[in-house]
TrEMBL record, chains A, B:
Protein name per Swiss-Prot or TrEMBL: Nudix hydrolase domain-containing protein
CDD domains the record matches: NUDIX_Hydrolase
GO molecular function, one term: FAD diphosphatase activity
GO CC terms of this entry: chloroplast
Listed transmembrane segments: none
Cofactor annotation: Mg(2+)
Keywords: Hydrolase, Magnesium
Residue runs in coiled coils: none
The keyword Magnesium appears for this protein: yes
GO BP terms: flavin-containing compound metabolic process
Pfam families: NUDIX, Zn_ribbon_Nudix
Domain Nudix hydrolase, residue spans: 118-241
Provenance organism: Brassica campestris
InterPro entries: Nudix_hydrolase, NUDIX_hydrolase-like_dom_sf, NUDIX_hydrolase_CS, NUDIX_hydrolase_dom, Nudix_N
């Protein structure tokens, strides 16, 4: 039985960043910083018809956990207070803002090392075959039984494209060829960044891996938008359909800002900000 | 005085990925997986004139470490055997490949939790002003005294675009507006991914922060290619110049595969693979 725990901590990063960007600096500039970006807000279209209700940060939008029969999987992304010991020397940690920094860190009281936590990259493939897309029905929590693109955490030692192909093989048993980058979607609240590639099947053989119940090619009009697993997948598929309508598939950068406190199952409870294109 | 250690471990990931991609699966497919991507190799141009000598993995291509006066900064990216204790319960770890996985992990012998390690994102800005680009001369190791784009590790709680603006403010005292995504460059050997945005100055005030000795706008013909800090910066600037020659700036995805064993100072000792564009 899969025994898995995912730590998806609330982050105070946004507040702290704002503070640090508005403080004065010993420079020739006397101006303050504005966080307002040159945001090309989308024209009225499906992708912007999200329902801005509140949603919980817990697990929603998170990705398949590595499977394990005998161990506890933990993907920590931000809850620094849960780091109670130094992973290098075993000493107890204290939680302080180090000199010259602005964020709370876990600092070893014995050796002084800081345990930095950084966002994780989730890499996956948007596989298109004869105007159909390949989706996998999840066999693991969170979002068991809901549809997703084959995707998972990038590992050290592989490129994002390699990782996306590996995850596609593991979850869909599909041999694919990566064609081009399609989207980078940051989810600051849970410390994740989705990197999605357009890909094509090298042959028609595919079958669900252990983390999938089913894999299926969906016609573009039949995509199960009401049964998708994550906001990131909802955005990706909508952006792709919109690009097709416009006659040109482009690269998309965007930030998915989730609404704290709303239901994890409400994958439409967010805004897509900083939507930028080359 | 800055007391910093950076762990940049060798990864056995590539080998393991190859093994796992070629093994048979309980699926309808009897084919094996090929790692060969649809690589659009660049036409003969400056970007491909890299010298393919061997280089060391130690610190080359790594990023400014967070500054600290009193603590030891550690940015761990892959050397799992250095994780000797569980950061959650303090128990000693063992190093094994968990059931259902393929990579060596640090597993707590007390609570069973696995300490996953994932690549880190380095976010930065390619700031263009009147056909000049803004570079910073580094005041920290590695690559002290060499030129770089303002860039640093993405923090949990911020988007890549926000992180790139924050780093630009911290290192160059510059207020910028992010215009568009320009490049994602993976460096699998050291577990880093560079995400670079095109940006413009909101005013002409800029000045070096504590991690920079100097910040300067360089004309496109005067970029100090022989004094750049990292391969990722070398590639980014070359891609931008090539795009300008072609008359259109595009988004680039690519993998910088460094040559193990060569000098860290040889930033041209790599190949750019999987160069894909939308």
């Amino acid at each position: 039985m899969l025994k898995a725990v995912q730590i998806l901590g609330w982050s105070s990063g946004l507040t702290i960043i704002s503070q640090r960007l508005t403080k004065t600096r010993n420079s020739s500039s006397s101006s303050t910083i504005s966080l307002k970006l040159s945001t090309f807000s989308s024209s009225p279209r499906r992708i912007l018809s999200f329902i801005p209700t509140r949603m919980s940060s817990s697990q929603s939008g998170s990705d398949p956990l590595p499977k394990s029969q005998t161990f506890v999987s933990v993907q920590s992304s931000g809850d620094v207070r849960k780091i109670k010991f130094c992973q290098w020397c075993g000493g107890p940690t204290k939680h302080e803002i180090p000199d010259g920094e602005e964020k709370l860190r876990a600092i070893c009281t014995h050796c002084g090392k800081i345990a930095y936590q950084n966002p994780k990259m989730v890499v996956g493939c948007l596989i298109v075959h004869e105007e159909k897309v390949l989706l996998c029905k999840r066999n693991i929590q969170p979002s068991h039984g809901l549809w997703t693109l084959p995707a998972g955490y990038l590992e050290v030692g592989e490129s994002a494209a390699e990782g996306a192909m590996r995850e596609t093989w593991e979850e869909a048993g599909a041999t694919v060829e990566v064609i081009s980058p399609f989207a980078q979607l940051d989810i600051p609240l849970i410390g994740q960044t989705y990197v999605i590639f357009l890909a094509r099947l090298k042959n028609l053989d595919f079958a669900p891996g252990p983390e999938s119940l089913e894999c299926r090619l969906f016609g573009l009009d039949d995509i199960p938008f009401d049964s998708l697993a994550f906001s990131s997948i909802y955005v990706t598929l909508n952006l792709y359909l919109e690009d097709l309508k416009k006659g040109k598939v482009k690269f998309h950068y965007g930030t998915i800002n989730k609404r704290p406190g709303s239901s994890p199952s409400d994958i439409r409870a967010f805004t897509l900000d900083y939507h930028l294109q080359p």
